[in-house]
Automatic annotation (TrEMBL):
The gene is rlmF. HAMAP family: 23SrRNA_methyltr_F. Residues 1-20 are annotated as: Disordered. Gene3D superfamilies: Vaccinia Virus protein VP39 (3.40.50.150). The lineage of its organism: Bacteria, Pseudomonadati, Pseudomonadota, Gammaproteobacteria, Oceanospirillales. Specifically methylates the adenine in position 1618 of 23S rRNA. This is Ribosomal RNA large subunit methyltransferase F. It comes from Marinobacterium aestuariivivens. Its EC number is 2.1.1.181.
Amino acid sequence: MNKPDTKRSAKPELHPRNPHRARYDFPALIADSPDLQPFIRPNRFGNESIDFGDAAAVKALNRALLKHFYGVAYWDLPAGFLCPPIPGRADYIHYLADLLATSNDGSIPRGPAIKALDIGIGANCIYPIIGTREYGWRFVGSDINTTAIAAAKTLVSANPCLAGKIEARLQDRDDRIFAGIWRNGERFDITLCNPPFHSSKAAMTAESNRKWRGLKHGKASAAPKLNFGGQANELWCDGGEEAFVCRMVRESRSFGERCCWFSSLVARQSSLSGIYRELKKAGAAQVRTVEMAQGQKISRFVTWSYLGPEQREAWRAARWKG
């Protein structure tokens, strides 16, 4: 395995192609989604905003963003499921597009010939929506939650711009990630994942309390809430993200010749050393870490490939040219 490359954005801001780099244009969003209007209020700086501690407001904002920027007319979630912030999700997709471009003479492969696998599609279906609408890619999304799969299927079927481009598959065993989802002979150009971050419910609750105090500007709350929601499998697993991604690495080896690039978000810098060790043991031919930024928040994803330069060129010739 080559020494992991680390690439980062030059400034702490979103990807240049991310349409959410500017402040939210609330009049334009409300024009498309009038249901957002009741949630608009001045923030402590006197600017129009929403209360990001209010789960209903976050959901209304997401619905407006998806309609305004991606043409998704219907978007809803079952109660209690993860309602993720859209700008950061879009950044991951755009940086993955750049990654594919590095294997395609600098040109981003676009269109339905490109097939991506989203591990943990959730009920929100955000990554496939953005990838399909921005680059025309096809997606398979997996999840171990039957309600999430049903909700994702409903979202896809309710929006003609998504129909036939996104497939949701149930993972019926929680000890497997790729096996059982990856069909015989199937190839993916890229895989992506937002792994469970926390190691336990207690750890998740402590982090939620800290974030809630931040949202309330240091004020304590007797009943802190998860403003972005989330089911257990979306939020924590034994060993947290490091254990999950290491397990993904071990399993990916069996599919190494059927994928150009694997990837996963990694929230904690401290998780990287263990993941790098697992990638070395797995025999990854190339490993990269791409850093992303939104304001003062730094995030990253690790990506790896078992294909050498000649194999990636053969992959490009077979799947992307023309």
